Amino acid sequence: MAHHHHDHGRENTDIDWAEMAQLLETQAELFTPLYERAMAWLAQEVTEPGLIVDAGSGPGVVSCLFAETFPGARVLAVDATEPLLERARTRAARQGVADRFASLAGELPGVLGELDYPADLLWASRSLHHLGDQRAALTAFADRVAPGGTLALLEGGLPSRYLPRDIGIGRPGLQARLDVVEEEWFTRMRADLPDSVAETEDWPALLTAAGLKHTRTRSFLLDLPAPASDRTRAYVAASLSRLRDAAADDLDADDRATLDRLLDPADPASVHRRPDVFVLAAYTVHTAVRAV
């Protein structure tokens, strides 16, 4: 799942994933170099997986990357949103991996009970934190990993940066203030989930509690320096636009006005035109192995 620039106001933390399809796809495509480095790291532990399960696959950009990175593997994209899985299947066909690609629609973690075989690699990228009881869900994930197989969790990392601290308009430090608003939104989103349980986000400890061994953690950087490509600019604009919609009530008038200028394609100070737009992001992956 994508990083959480959600477009929902204070009252509503439900996410329309199908509506987010384009942004999820653009983001994953832009972040491909980061995912490729993460997969090269995973490949040291998971030498020749027979079955890779992408739990919370979204539109399948990363699922298809797994199919390319591990040419001997079958890949199963699992997601609750069928329109996203349709995109995943279309992508797999376009990339010539459809013969090793399948999809399964249903709510995590329960839908994993429908797997015919346990996974040699179960990948859950920012899907776990959308489940109320993360500890119980991780145990369910671990139960669907084959003996000797790996569970890989992408959670945490750092908030992305798109602009310098002082952008010449408004009050410096806008992105840091947006981070605070987003953290508060995330906390409300978690609290609103069914069966929500507060959990210390010590992912290696939670993987160990789920009965897994040999935890490892590594962070991967995406560094797209200025001057940004049109594609990068479009992603930054989409991300800031979602944040503006989500955070409108939580920002002061000055910051709202600054965001409006940043998002106005006619304004020379906008992210569509300014020369200093970049993307700098760090994602963290935690892995653990099921005992043989």
What is this structure, in a nutshell?
The chain has 292 residues and is α/β, with parallel strands linked by helices. Helix content is 38%, strand content 21%. Helix 1 packs across helix 8.
Morphology: globular
| Series of secondary-structure elements, N-terminal to C-terminal | HHEHEHEEHEEHHEHHE
Low-pLDDT parts are 1-11
Overall CATH class of the domain at 21-166 and 196-224 and 280-289: Alpha Beta
Q: How large, in whole angstroms, is the Cα Rg?
A: 19 Å
Detail the topology: elements first, then pairings.
Layout: H1 21-30, H2 32-45, E1 51-55, H3 61-69, E2 74-79, H4 82-94, E3 101-105, E4 119-125, H5 134-143, E5 145-154, E6 158-161, H6 174-192, H7 203-209, E7 213-224, H8 230-247, H9 253-262, E8 279-289
Parallel strand pairs: 1-2, 1-4, 2-3, 4-5
Antiparallel strand pairs: 5-8, 6-8, 7-8
Helix pairs in contact: 1-8, 2-3, 8-9
Give a verbal description of the structure.
- There is one protein chain.
- Strands 1, 2, 3, 4, 5, 6, 7 and 8 form an eight-stranded mixed beta sheet that branches.
- Helix 1 (21-30) crosses helix 8, helix 2 packs across helix 3 and helix 8 (230-247) runs antiparallel to helix 9.
- 38% of the residues lie in helices and 21% in strands.
- The chain is α/β, with parallel strands linked by helices.
- The model is unreliable at 1-11 (pLDDT under 50).
- It has a domain at 21-166 and 196-224 and 280-289: 3-Layer(aba) Sandwich (Rossmann fold).
